[in-house]
Amino acid sequence: MENEDIYRFVVPTPFSVGNVNMYLIKGDSLTLVDAGVKTEEAWQSFKKQLHELGYEPSDIDQVIVTHHHPDHVGLLDYLPEGVPVIGHEKADRWIRQDPVFFDEHQRFFEQFFLECGVERAFLEEIPNWRRSLRYSCRRSLSGTVKEGDSLPGLTHWKVIETPGHAQSHIVFYRETDGLMLGGDHLLLHISPNPMLEPPFEGEAERPKPLLQYNASLLKMRNYEITRVMTGHGEDVQDVNSLIEKRLAKQRERAEHVLDMLKQEPLTPFQVCQRLFPTAYEQEFMLTMSETIGQLDYLEDVGAVIKQKIQNQYVYEAVEGSH
Ligand SMILES: [Zn+2]
């Protein structure tokens, strides 16, 4: 890591999260970590900040992405075609916008949401989940990394898989001093949404993103992290207390859902409508992801059980659970 510098670029996004951070690792070569959102405004902002360091986009040797969400990959469409793009294998089907995968995605969620108690008429009207993809890219990974790998050309940076916010989510840990490039895994002011995704090839069950996220949070305790440079906002310095805070908040949210289920058994969609009485129509995927996350959590700790009644899941509080 001698002579290695890290620079942060802050670029705008059209999303409610606000700006997104991109990082440049300057060692023997130039590595870009994450690639903003596909808007002209983000591209100009990025280019300007790169110029201030004396570089052009064509100087970048490789791009590594923490996960596949549009605000972290969109500018791949603007970067020179020959630049290698590296990420987790689960990112590829998203950033390629693979039509076969998107058809599977559509079918999976149609069936799943019907089982969650969503009416078919409503399901047809819901805002198209693909709308945010216009800010994404159409580019394939040229290389993949997984748990325990080093970053190409940066052997002191290790890859840690942190599924939860996205199935493709990974973070990078510099073993020499405990610095982490954390994507959206740990953010100072917001808790990342555990987004529902269909199963990956060869997986029979859907992932349970909130349970994965909590496990990925606890996994951070295995590392001596001195600082996290994040995907949005400022650095996180005190990682352990942030993890405590996130897990406590999580228990509190689940408690609220459990109270609801103590009144009467409900389908996931009914829980969602009660939790997000106005937001659920506009932010259907997001609010259902949050709801399913709470239900998966309560089921995991044994506070609720689910039954399938007339092809719909119904969740019920377990007697005496608290
Ligand atoms: Zn993000």
Automatic annotation (TrEMBL):
Q: Which domain of life is it from?
A: Bacteria
**Ranges in coiled-coil conformation:** none
Q: Where is the Metallo-beta-lactamase domain?
A: 19-232
Q: Gene3D superfamilies, from UniProt?
A: Ribonuclease Z/Hydroxyacylglutathione hydrolase-like (3.60.15.10)
Under CDD domains, the record lists: TTHA1429-like_MBL-fold (cd07725)
Q: Which UniProt keywords apply?
A: Hydrolase
Give one GO molecular function term. Answer: hydrolase activity
Entry keyword annotation includes Hydrolase:
yes
Protein name according to UniProt: Glyoxylase-like metal-dependent hydrolase (Beta-lactamase superfamily II)
Organism, as annotated: Thermaerobacillus caldiproteolyticus
